[in-house]
UniProtKB/TrEMBL annotation:
The chain crosses the membrane at residues 6-27, 34-53, 59-78, 90-111, 117-138, 150-172, 192-214, 226-252, 272-292, 299-319, 339-356, 363-382. Belongs to the monovalent cation:proton antiporter 2 (CPA2) transporter (TC 2.A.37) family. It is a multi-pass membrane protein. Residues 567-596 are annotated as: Disordered. Pfam families: Na_H_Exchanger, TrkA_N. The keyword Manganese does not apply. It is found in: Membrane. Keywords: Antiport, Ion transport, Membrane, Potassium, Potassium transport, Transmembrane, Transmembrane helix, Transport. This is Kef-type potassium/proton antiporter, CPA2 family. Residues 406-522 form the RCK N-terminal domain.
Length: 596
């Protein structure tokens, strides 16, 4: 019996996985980051390396979905108000960087002998940085939310927008192409506005109700499918009118940033994003023609030095000129000096339209890839310089690192108990994030003005997306003992620095939580029962000093009984329930009433 043939792409998948399993840990160990590992793996297995795989272009078309999902996840972390606050960085700093760098590189290319059209495409193509590469570096460093990380992201976002007019420029410069009529231009603009309007309308009014309905079914795989549909569907709408798919996914993510399902969406998409991003960088590495680079190494290395030097200089100068301290300006300069993935798109379009020949396009692609490979080295050089200065006792604010230190609280479970806890915490001005798995509770809390997100407390990825990693304290306010136990184990293992405060449903649960070593636990009815009993005694005419004595004695006996139950079992210490509080003489005899 003949053996069945392997499924399509089966052998290729094994080669991809094996290469990344070897290369990425080595790159991480050397301090270069995972992206360099993926690029090196692609270069090794590609048609210009060991020739284990053919062209990476087909793979790149699929892997570009990783960039789409990355921008969707980033969008989830930026609500519209925050995006509006970034407008100066996006349209001011970002535009200035692209224009100044592009014009300078265009001028250099013209002096080098390139034609006017070729120099424009090369100059502005190399002015773009890699959104995927830079965001991956910022996320690995945990500095995307830092001031310099936010400014770098604003620049990258403008560059994603800039690819649209740059592709239009290629079409205009193409030989033999006549200018478009005003009617054609108006039609294109109308289609673009309609696509943007459709994404905004769906994100604002349709998606949240649909997710609310799906969450009630408790079918995780359906929620996952819906999350991917939202990200890829919005990207497809934008792509159909000639805009960047990544830009469409980003817009959808921003519109869902204030949704109750933000953290669950992020946790569900993260594995797909990570895998496809890795595949994207492997495919980019496969396109590096090592032999062409070696044959023209002087031009390639000059191009790499020119691009990284000029772009880094403009980034530093513009960041400093727009208010960044020297430390942040330097970090922006060493994070964004590389070429970007959209340069590949622009150069390919230029080849198709006869603005670039194949060899020139390949050399430009090689410059982009090598700048990507050298970007982590530039970052390591800055870190090493800072470390040397610190070792010598030199205080230099230009190289100091940034660490975010805002204390936050994660509230898990937002019923009546959790809502009161949140009210007390926010009364002190503390920042809280709350998650719950009941859509009805989430809807009620949102109507009360609280931001509560849908999330499963037994999933480590959801806890991480909700901010457990940076939370100073996790308040466990859920009713289900088993779910709380699972969540406590995940927090102890994944986020050991966080304090764990727990709501105990009853005495047995309180004993179990004590054995688990939580930092604080309290029975949900104990304090309210004490207050109830005090009110009853007061109504029956018991003096207030006597009520205080009784409360103190009851609390003391309760603690003693809990200690005995921990060591002797649930029924130990029951005699303490029935003891009458002894009467003691009041501290102020003048105000005391003699005991009868």
């Amino acid at each position: 019996m003949a053996a069945e043939s392997a499924p399509p792409f089966f052998a290729e998948s094994i080669v991809f996985l094996a290469a990344t399993v070897v290369a990425v840990p080595i790159a991480k160990r050397l301090g270069l980051g995972s992206v360099v590992g993926y690029l090196a793996a692609g270069a090794a297995i590609g048609p210009h390396g060991l020739q284990l795989l053919g062209s990476g272009e087909d793979v790149l078309h699929v892997a570009e979905l990783g960039v789409v999902l990355l921008l969707f996840v980033i969008g989830l972390e930026l609500d519209p108000s925050k995006l509006w606050r970034m407008r100066r960085d996006i349209f001011g700093l970002g535009t200035a960087q692209v224009v100044f760098t592009g014009i300078t590189l265009f001028t250099v290319a013209r002096f080098a002998g390139f034609s006017h059209a070729t120099a424009l495409v090369a100059g502005f193509g190399l002015a773009l940085s890699s959104t995927a590469f830079a965001l991956q570096i910022l996320q690995e460093r945990g500095q995307l939310s830092s001031p310099y990380g936010q400014r770098a992201f604003g620049i990258l976002l403008l560059q994603d927008i800039a690819i649209v007019p740059l592709l239009a420029m290629v079409a205009i410069l193409a030989p033999g192409e006549g200018p478009s009529t005003m009617a054609d231009i108006a039609q294109e603009v109308g289609l673009v506005l309609a696509a943007v309007g459709a994404v905004i309308f769906a994100g604002r009014y349709l998606i949240s109700p649909v997710f609310l309905l799906l969450a009630a079914s408790r079918a995780r795989e359906v929620m996952l499918s819906a999350a991917l549909l939202v990200a890829l569907g919005s990207a497809g709408i934008m792509h159909s009118v000639g805009l960047s798919m990544a830009l469409g996914a980003f817009l959808a993510g921003v519109l869902l940033a204030e949704s109750s399902f933000r953290h669950t969406l992020e946790a569900d998409i993260e594995p797909f994003r990570s895998l496809l991003m890795g595949l994207f960088f492997v495919a980019v590495g496969m396109s590096l023609d090592i032999y062409l680079v070696m044959a023209n190494w002087q031009y390639v290395m000059a191009g790499v030095a020119l691009v990284m030097g000029l772009k880094g200089l403009f980034l530093w100068a513009l960041a400093r000129g727009t208010g960044s301290p020297n430390s942040d300006a330097l970090r922006i300069a060493v994070t964004l000096p590389q070429g970007g993935e959209f340069a590949f798109v622009l150069f390919t379009a230029a080849v198709v339209n006869n603005l670039l020949d194949y060899q020139t396009a390949n050399l430009l692609n090689a410059v982009v890839i090598l700048t990507m490979l050298l970007t982590p080295v530039a970052g390591l050089g800055l870190d090493s310089f800072a470390a040397r200065l610190k070792a010598k006792g030199v205080e230099n604010p230009s190289v100091e690192t940034f660490e975010e230190a805002t204390p936050t609280v994660l509230v898990v479970g937002f019923g009546r108990f959790g809502m009161v806890v949140a009210q007390i915490l926010t009364s002190e001005g503390l920042e809280i994030t709350a998650i719950d798995n009941r859509p009805d509770r989430i809807d009620y809390a949102r109507k009360q003005g609280y931001k509560v997100y849908y999330g499963d407390a037994t999933r480590a990825d959801v806890l991480a997306a909700a901010g457990a990693g940076k939370a100073a304290l996790v308040a466990m306010c859920i009713e289900n003992d088993k779910i709380m136990a699972q969540s406590i184990e995940l927090i102890r293992e994944g986020f050991p620095e966080a304090l764990i405060f727990c709501r105990a449903t009853d005495r047995a649960h309180a004993l179990d939580l004590t054995k688990r070593g939580v930092d604080f636990q309290i029975r949900e009815t104990f304090e309210s029962s004490v207050v109830f009993g005090r009110a009853a005694l007061e109504a029956l005419g018991t003096p207030l000093d006597r009520i205080d004595q009784i409360e103190e004695d009851v609390r003391l006996r309760d603690e003693e009984r809990l200690a005995e139950q921990l060591s002797q079992g649930m029924y130990a210490g029951s005699e303490k329930l029935h003891r009458v509080t002894p009467r003691t003489a009041p501290k102020d005899n003048q105000d005391a009433t003699p005991a009868q």
